[in-house]
């Protein structure tokens, strides 16, 4: 029987786990209940289980044969601070908490793959099932790395997946290179000199300097980098003053930068620094520029991405695999794993993003019909990577 058909027999069981996790969402580094379910399931399957890695992370180890090769498969476990607006029975039971990114599905599918591989260990080597905490902004991946993930569980490569609304169920998208952007933040403080609004010559106006800065910073993306190399610079905050007749002493600007290449990220940061200093000098204001790197760009390694594309074609059929569609300006902390190891992060079709079923929307839900495809992808990836 075809693997996909065999795995359909497990779908109800995996769906039940998925919906239970969905109903009990936990935020970053608070995934105690979820990690408990993961550890218990792994142990029940006879899989060596390690807990407390990167705080609430869990790693399962499954060996077969005598091979020395090893592969890491990663799922994220955390939810978001969103009030769910769905009313199906498995809706969130915790106010203000919701699995609005499908990490419930990722966790359940990796448990499904662990069960299938434990049942039929037809591979030669070691599989590490990596259940990470805190993907949503808090950096669970670097926390696991700092806790010795790759020393304790030495793997040749690591692989991840994310459900993707808008991509049909049974389809997979693979990027040979950047798949998600970096997510950096900046704060700019413009220190002028407060004055009476009717006597501007007695002060240094931080509002005018700030307004100029907002415009001048738009030249960074449009004028300093290759137009074919994508980046976004969005200014999302501008705070200054609170009276009609006072030129305030200072103003604050904040925003985010997204790019797909570390070189571009550095170019944008350096250019912003220059523009801030120049505008500050032009107005006689003191401009303090604070740029903070967030998640780096998620960049798949090409040989592993091509390997994954072949596995995806085997699972979904050649015509259901997209190679190199447009990457996303969203960010993903799987990027940190890819800074340490070769690997690939793919998108798994979640069906049409209708009725608010888009990532981080209060009407989102993971599509349980995608479960057999996700599990078959993991199992086939292991069988081909650790080919006996
Ligand atoms: Ni996510």
Structural commentary:
The chain is α/β, with parallel strands linked by helices. The chain has 2 domains: 3-180 and 297-385, 3-Layer(aba) Sandwich (Aminopeptidase), CATH 3.40.630; 183-295, 2-Layer Sandwich (Alpha-Beta Plaits). Helix content is 35%, strand content 24%. The strands form 4 sheets. Strands 1-2-4-3-5-16-6-15 form an 8-stranded mixed sheet, sandwiched between helices. A 4-stranded antiparallel sheet has the order 10-12-8-13, covered by helices on one side. Helix 4 (103-119) crosses helix 11 (371-385). The protein is elongated and about 80 Å long. The two termini are 20 Å apart. The relative contact order is 0.20. Residues 101, 103, 135, 162 line the site of nickel (II) ion (NI).
| Overall outline | elongated
- Tell me the total number of β-strands: 16
Q: In total, how many domains does the architecture comprise?
A: 2
Query: Main sheet, how many strands, which sense, barrel?
Result: 8 strands, mixed
CATH level-3 fold name of the largest domain: Aminopeptidase
- What is the CATH architecture descriptor of the largest domain? 3-Layer(aba) Sandwich
Tally of helical runs: 11
* Helix-strand pattern: HHHEEEHEHHEEEEEHEEEHEEHEHEH
- The whole-number mean of residue pLDDT values reads 97
Report the structural category: alpha/beta
Write the layout of secondary structure elements.
Layout: H1 3-8, H2 11-23, H3 32-44, E1 48-53, E2 57-64, E3 70-76, H4 103-119, E4 125-132, H5 140-146, H6 149-152, E5 157-164, E6 172-174, E7 178-180, E8 184-191, E9 195-196, H7 206-223, E10 231-240, E11 246-247, E12 250-259, H8 262-283, E13 286-292, E14 298-299, H9 302-316, E15 321-323, H10 334-340, E16 343-349, H11 371-385
Parallel strand pairs: 3-4, 3-5, 5-16, 6-15
Antiparallel strand pairs: 1-2, 2-4, 6-16, 7-14, 8-12, 8-13, 9-11, 10-12
Helix pairs in contact: 2-4, 4-11, 7-8, 9-11
């Amino acid at each position: 029987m075809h693997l996909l058909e065999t795995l359909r027999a497990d779908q109800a069981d995996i769906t039940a786990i998925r919906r239970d996790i969905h109903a009990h969402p936990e935020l970053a580094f608070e995934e105690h209940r979820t990690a408990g379910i993961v550890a218990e399931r792994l142990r029940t399957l006879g899989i060596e289980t390690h807990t407390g890695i990167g705080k609430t992370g869990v790693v399962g180890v499954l060996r077969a044969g005598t091979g020395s090769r090893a592969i890491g498969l990663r799922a994220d476990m955390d939810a978001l601070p969103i009030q769910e607006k769905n009313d199906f029975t498995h809706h969130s039971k915790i106010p203000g908490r919701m699995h609005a990114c499908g990490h419930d599905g990722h966790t359940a599918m990796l448990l499904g793959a662990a069960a299938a591989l434990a049942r039929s260990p037809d591979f030669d080597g070691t599989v590490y099932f990596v259940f990470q905490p805190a993907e949503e902004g808090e950096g669970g991946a670097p926390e696991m790395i700092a806790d010795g993930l790759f020393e304790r569980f030495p793997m040749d490569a690591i692989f991840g997946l994310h459900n993707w609304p808008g991509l049909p169920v049974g389809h997979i998208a693979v990027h040979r290179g950047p798949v998600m952007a970096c997510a950096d933040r900046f704060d700019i403080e413009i220190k002028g000199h407060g004055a009476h609004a009717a006597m501007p010559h007695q002060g240094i106006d931080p509002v005018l300097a700030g307004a100029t800065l907002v415009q001048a910073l738009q030249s960074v993306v449009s004028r300093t980098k290759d137009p074919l190399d994508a980046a976004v610079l969005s200014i999302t905050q501008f705070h200054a003053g609170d009276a009609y007749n006072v030129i305030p002493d200072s103003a604050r600007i904040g925003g985010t930068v997204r790019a797909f290449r570390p070189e571009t990220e550095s170019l944008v940061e350096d250019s912003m620094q220059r523009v801030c200093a120049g505008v500050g000098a032009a107005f006689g204001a003191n401009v303090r520029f604070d740029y903070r790197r967030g998640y780096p760009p998620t960049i798949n390694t090409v040989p592993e991405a091509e390997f994954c594309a072949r596995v995806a074609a085997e699972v979904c059929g050649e015509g259901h695999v997209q190679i190199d569609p447009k990457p996303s300006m969203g960010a993903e902390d799987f990027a940190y794993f890819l800074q340490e190891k070769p690997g690939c992060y793919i998108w798994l079709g979640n069906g049409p993003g209708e009725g608010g079923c888009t990532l981080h929307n209060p009407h989102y839900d993971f599509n349980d019909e995608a479960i057999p495809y996700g599990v078959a992808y993991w199992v086939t990836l292991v069988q081909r990577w650790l080919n006996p």
